[in-house]
Amino acid sequence: MTTDIRAESRPRSEGHTPDMSDTATGRTSGGLLHGLPWLVWRRHRAALTGGIIVTVLASAFFVYEHFAVVDLVQQYGSQPGERASTKFGNDFGRIFRVGAGLLTFLPAIIGLFLGAPLIAGEQEHGTIRLVTTQSVSRARWIVTTLALPLGVVTLCTTALSLSYWWMWVPARSLAFTGDWLNGGPFDITGPMLPAKSLFFAVCGIALGMLLKRLLTSMVATVVFMAAFSIVWDRVPAHLAALRHAFAPLEHEVLIASDAINMDSWVATADGTFYGIGTCLESTEGATDACRAKMGITQSVTDYFGFDQMVGMQWRGSAILFALTALILGFVAWRAHRRPL
Amino acid sequence: MSDQSPWAIEADGLGKKYRRGWALQDCSFRLPAGRICALVGPNGAGKSTFLSTATRLVQPSAGSLRLFGVPVSDPAVLQRIAFLAQDKPLYPRFTVAETLRMGRELNPGWDQALAERIVKSGNIPFTAKVGTLSGGQRTRVAFALAFGKRPDLLMLDEPMADLDPLARHEMAGLLMAEAAEHGTTVLMSSHMLSEMEDMCDFLLVLSEGRLRMGGATDELVPAHSLVTGVAAGNGLPDELSRHHTVVESRVTGRQFTALVRPGGPLSDSWDVQVPGLEEVLLAYLRSPQAPTLITDEARFDTPVAGRAA
């Protein structure tokens, strides 16, 4: 530890010339934040304040709409039917769709405009050599540079996710024709929105750090996010065990209006499943004969119940959080050990 | 305690290897505190690599480096050094005042009055965005940031390279005045000796990643003589190469010219002149096979005998 003996006798900041106004030096502004957090905040001030303002407005709007949705459900019921569905579609259809659309793209926006430039911007402009040669260790610099923006991302996306969830849940059977898995709600509520946002953000950060150029890393981040989304689309359906609902042949299999119909089968009494087209012959007689021969007696529907949704979201988020932690570790290690 | 170390820089066998090869190799010297030192060499000689290792931007692959007795691997050295990179990076969207605030927020020994004085003497408004400043003004703000840190060792990478002659003169004056007032050790790199010859009292010459020459300028130059005389046949007189160290020589017709480090009295039959600093420097850069010259003051004494020539 090297303490500077001269520091005691030095004219410190208090001793500045009186004709300098404090506002001109920025001494009184900034308030809460000091040291590295102030610098990181100042660098990303526009993006972070913009994000916080949008979050507050959007969350307030979702909360406000929640009460309107509850009113509608009390008046028309929460089950899909002609009156309730039409009324809901007219009053809220657009709000739900636009809200879901924006939140679906939010992780990509964060990855592109906050993640990719976070370190690549400093590398491209050379300011990384300015900031890492001040009196703060590189370890502290990388921790603050990562923690502050990612902390804000976590807070904002959590607020948006919770408020959208609160608006959507009362009308979950009406909105998106009850399809929470593919319609949007699965990806933008609960832990999924923060998880995906953080994951895309750190992917952008890591790509930026490796590529060192702002534009290149933004393009690479977009390509990566698009490719990842295509792969990730297949994942949610594997995050829980499918449930089966049975009914006699020729009867409709009944599942809850907020359950997701995944597949349909026909089955024998002892539980052997066959494809839905099995024994569909040209005449009814032939069909019946075939079914009798094979012992097919019931229809089956595979589905996910609404009560499975939160568990599936946490399992999906756990995968994303684990990947995020791995990439963060790599970024911190590399920033600490290697020249930037 | 490390504050008593009389050496601003002590390099012992310092080396840095990149994938393409050694950028800096077996570099051993020491720089006494309080000197204004020029780090000179052609492009790609390893100047920036050395400055990067001394500012903790890259980790050396070999050897050791101490600044004021503190190993460079210890983050505590950051408080004692300031670094001005070649392109003087600053955040373009920050105002001048915010740039100085950054210095204050990140450095415990920050001297706001000094930094403000440097900015004000250039008539730069504190509310101006850094991105709108001229090259000379930006350099002045970067200087203010570097000096406001109150470093014991200030390192500058090609500080004058992109400045017009007027700004160059102004910055040189500012640098010398502030360094003299605070007793700051200054190490600045350049591929042009002429622009720092008047400022520096210490010289380190790098070429192809190796240290070729090091020492106080008033010791280095008198150690050399520029000798002109009659050539022996097609080459140098035997006597010259036998008794003196020839750094560089040229034979034109029946006449030779040689830059030598005299090992004793030179023959009266030759015309002997005192070379300029630049002549000595160029001779070393042109002759990779010439023996390295490190003065006693600059030599890093290691227990291993027979290091620097």
Automatic annotation (TrEMBL), chain A:
Residues 1-28 are annotated as: Disordered. The chain crosses the membrane at residues 46-64, 95-120, 141-168, 188-207, 214-232, 314-333. Residues 1-19 have a biased composition (Basic and acidic residues). The keyword Transmembrane applies. The keyword Transmembrane helix applies. Pfam families: ABC2_membrane_2. Keywords: Membrane, Transmembrane, Transmembrane helix. This is ABC transporter permease. It comes from Streptomyces catenulae.
TrEMBL record, chain B:
Pfam families: ABC_tran. The keyword Cell inner membrane does not apply. Residues 9-233 form the ABC transporter domain. Keywords: ATP-binding, Nucleotide-binding, Transport. SUPFAM superfamilies: P-loop containing nucleoside triphosphate hydrolases. It comes from the Bacteria. The keyword ATP-binding applies. PROSITE patterns: ABC_TRANSPORTER_1, ABC_TRANSPORTER_2. InterPro entries: AAA+_ATPase, ABC_transporter-like_ATP-bd, ABC_transporter-like_CS, ABC_Transporter_VariousFunc, P-loop_NTPase. GO terms for molecular function: ATP binding. This is ABC transporter ATP-binding protein.
